[in-house]
């Protein structure tokens, strides 16, 4: 999980907003409510944790307009887990063909919601899990991106996840490479894990942190203290 926030001064700055903590809950539910109201909007969700009632009940209201991938690694795959309960409820509302359980090698760690409609084109991403702890306890972040150019890479990634069951398969897709989000006034790109060795990106991110930071760097990286490698080295360098 990585936290990133920015406050752009461009007139279209509302195309990308970042929220942290309990504010993320409001932002996520707002996007889902907008998706429900846009009767022709299609919604694509990839969820690591999926047990928060306010989220699941809204996804149910979308009916067959929803397609969702729910993690099934470890405890998530157990019969009584929140994720399995959510699967049963959404299979009933959206149809079994629109609900998929998946893990990518170890787990499917995404927390993305994509809304593609005539009135609403929005993406929710970031580190906020769709659980009670994710909404009310942990200091997570949620980013809301708006506009056709921002939505398209996430739609493509959803299809690539849906059609691939292994890290090798997904890592060979274009979604594992950098894609420009096309946001006015903001230099923002996105790539999706897992990657193949040939398109691994941690070194390029570490280079941005360690070699290109000239003023301020804001970061929130979970488990950094126990994860050695290029990211930890870059953070230590810029902190000193």
Describe this structure in words.
The chain is 35% helix and 20% strand. The chain has helices spanning 23-37, 53-61, 82-94, 132-136, 148-162, 167-171, 202-212, 230-239, and strands spanning 2-3, 16-20, 42-47, 66-71, 99-102, 111-116, 121-126, 141-146, 179-180, 189-190, 220-221. The strands form 3 sheets. The protein has a 7-stranded mixed sheet with strand order 2-8-7-6-3-4-5, with helices on both faces. It has a two-stranded antiparallel ribbon with strand order 1-11. A two-stranded antiparallel sheet has the order 9-10. The protein is globular, with a radius of gyration of 18 Å. It starts with a strand and ends with a helix.
Strand order of the largest sheet: 2-8-7-6-3-4-5
Number of helices: 8
If you average the pLDDT, what whole number results? 90
Strand content: 15-25%
Q: Give the distance, in angstroms, between the N- and C-terminal Cα atoms.
A: 23 Å
How would a textbook summarize the main sheet? 7 strands, mixed
What structural category arises from helix and sheet content? alpha+beta
Please provide the ordered H/E string of secondary-structure elements.
EEHEHEHEEEHEHHEEHEH
